[in-house]
Amino acid sequence: MLPFDLAIQTYSRGTLVHLGRGITADMFLFRGKLGRKGWVTAQFGTGQQAREYAEAHALDRPDSRLRAVRIELLHKLLTKFPEGELLDAGCGPGVLVRSLLDSPAYDYRITILDQSEAMIQYCVTHIESGRVRARVGDIESLPFGDASFDVTISTGALEYADASAAVRQLSRVTRPGGVVVVSMLNPLSPYWMTDWFLYRPAVRFLAWAMGILRIPHRRYYGASRTGIRALRAGVLRRYLLQSGLVPVDVVYFGPTPLLRPLDRIPALRRWAERRGGQLQTTKGWNRWTATGYVIVAHRQG
Fold first, then answer.
1. Angle ∠(261,264,265) on CA atoms, nearest 5
2. Is 160 exposed, middle or buried (CB count within 10 Å of its CB: 0-12, 13-18, 19+)?
3. What helix, strand, coil percent values describe the chain, rounded to 5?
4. Which CATH number is 15-198+221-299 given?
5. For position 33, what pLDDT does the model report?
6. What whole-number distance in Å separates Cα of residue 59 and Cα of residue 214?
7. Measured at the alpha carbon of residue 172, what is the angle toward residues 167 and 178, in degrees to the nearest 5?
8. Would you say 301 and 176 are in contact if contact means Cβ atoms under 8 Å apart?
9. Which of 94, 89, 154 is closest to 125 using CA atoms?
10. What are the domain boundaries of the chain?
11. What are phi and psi of 17, to 5 degrees?
């Protein structure tokens, strides 16, 4: 059996069309029976996984710093919409929600939703506030009525879902005149390109080869299948427009000159952070180096 799925992935419109719309992080995969939905569920399905994911935000790791930059950017963008009913769809362990509750700048009545019951349970346990209600549910089929929220947020979740279906649902539950804020990894970033097409396949191949040779090895963190499918900003903007949303701002965050796995070298990481400044965001020429982006859109009346 070959170690890689050389057919890459099969989509109804073909691989080349898919690559023109966005890039999947799992183009080179070990064969398996779970499928994309199963990989996503398997990553966040237990209490231990929820706890480890939440605790990772406090660690000095590249992915943790990326999430911190994204949260700081969201706070900056949300100052224009500081109150009302807010939905965090795909809330994970509730790091963003806790930061909003801790800030005096916002007066939200917050609803959190995640498809992982373990994530929701973690949130319920660690968020002590009567301003938060929690639901287990799928972002592609939100269990809320039309026009239920003034502010609808989905960060770090669309990569794991059918983004087109999820955006339609976010638009449906947002009130006319309300705002939708979504984020996405930047699939054209050199950082993610090297991570997805070089680093992860190399680690998987090494693990496969060592297994064939019966050489003991440990499973490398971050090289497992994720189910991530990242879209270019132009594609996500089109989904928003098709769903009755008007994009008003696109901000790229986390630009870095580093490639994976060079970001693991502390000296190089500190050098890159000094170049980027405190709040690493951009709308300029260097947006192609950004690791992610946020789009703010208004719901048409």
1. 110
2. buried
3. 40, 20, 35
4. 3.40.50.150
5. 46
6. 33
7. 95
8. yes
9. 94
10. 15-198+221-299
11. -65, -40
Confidence of residue 15 (pLDDT cuts 50, 70, 90): very low
> CB under 8 Å, gap of 24 or more: what pairs does 100-104 form?
100/75, 101/127, 101/129, 101/131, 101/132, 103/75
Task: Decide if 91 contacts 100 (C-beta within 8 A).
Answer: no
Could you tell me the pTM of the whole model? 0.80
Distance CA 53, CA 4 (A): 28
Number of neighbours of residue 206 by Cβ within 10 angstroms: 15
Distance CA 120, CA 100 (A): 17
pLDDT at 273: 67
For 293, the token pair is: 């982006």
Q: Per residue in 247-265, is it b (16+ CB within 10 Å) or e — as a string?
A: beebbbbbbbebbbeebee
pLDDT in tens, 226-264: 678 899 999 999 999 999 999 999 999 988 877 777 777
- CA–CA distance, 281 with 292 (Å, rounded to integer): 9
Structure tokens that stand for 282 in this block? 């951009």
pLDDT tens profile 78-94: 999 999 999 999 998 89
- What does the pLDDT look like over 152-206, one tens digit per residue? 999 989 998 999 999 999 999 999 999 999 999 999 999 888 888 888 788 778 7
Half-sphere exposure of 102 (CA within 13 A, CB side): 10
For residue 176, cis peptide bond before it (omega within 30 degrees of 0): no
Owner of token pair 């939200």:
108
Q: Tell me the pLDDT tens digit for each residue of 270-294.
A: 776 666 554 478 888 888 889 999 9
Tokens of 167: 């955006």
Give me the amino acid identity at 178: G
